[in-house]
Amino acid sequence: MVRLIVSDIDGTLVGRDEKIPADAPAVLDEVRSRGVLFTLATGRSDCLARHFADSFGCDIPYTTCNGAAIVDRKGRVFQRLRFPIRYARGVIGMAMEAGIAVICTVDGDEFVLDADAEYVRQHREIYSWERTLSEDEWQMLEVDKISFMSSFDDAAIALLEAECRRTPECFSYTRYQDRSVELVAPGVSKASGVEQLAAMLSVPMSEVMFIGDHQNDIPLMKVSGVSAAVGNATEDAKRAAGYVCSRPLFEGVAEAIDRFVLRNL
């Protein structure tokens, strides 16, 4: 029996246009009317996830920053795991030399280290806060997450991953094909974040259903009682999921909810 549904946001609940599906409120209202909880597990920072938590009516905490944080819509923080930015200074230098955007998250808010990076220039409406770190900040600042982002398939992403692989004790990382690498504290993932959240809610992981689409979703798929990949998911995510939806995005989410939750209540 599924008691808690957890969904990724980007590429799962919404597409690149980030529009909230018109039928989402009705589907989720039906879920909640059956006594089943619904929440989010996203790689987004708090500041970029709040709108979706509101739009999807999350009335329980949700995880952000790939499991580093557990927060709710009232602004309460139940968990925030950080790591020193100095641990990633070498990787950050490599990224900036290659023109890869470096986006840092501190206490749920984001800033960029180079506003001239192409990815930042293309997303100026989101990444408007550039910050130059002092040497003291390089030594003392702790971050929730660091994202390295490219606007195109970039061979430099593989080089960044190789550098990250050299220091597993400093941070955990996820590579998103040839477009991005994200760093969080050691041992942190969506799986660890949702395991902590489920424990807070007194829901065993065997009664959690997770729906996702990408590489950072795979660890959580492996520990959830029921896991589903939407139809547009990466091949790796599809292989990891217990069920592959025939439809993409929210249509796939609704398909999985109907199959594993609504029909079984």
User: Radius of gyration, Cα only, in angstroms?
Assistant: 18 Å
Q: According to CATH, what is the class of the largest domain? A: Alpha Beta
Q: Biggest sheet, strands in spatial order?
A: 2-1-13-14-15
Q: What is the helical fraction, as a range of percent?
A: 25-40%
Q: What general form does the structure show?
A: globular
Task: Please state the structural category.
Answer: alpha/beta
Uncertain ranges:
none
Tally of DSSP helical segments: 10
Q: Mind describing the biggest β-sheet?
A: 5 strands, parallel
Give the CATH H-level superfamily of the largest domain: HAD superfamily/HAD-like
The average pLDDT score comes to 96
Secondary structure: number of strands: 15
* Structural domain count: 2
Q: Provide the CATH topology of the largest domain.
A: Rossmann fold
- From the N-terminal CA to the C-terminal CA, the straight-line distance is 8 Å
The name of the CATH architecture of the largest domain is 3-Layer(aba) Sandwich
Q: What is the string of SSEs from the N terminus onward?
A: EHEHEEEEHEEHHEEHEEHEHEHEH
| Portion in strands | 15-25%
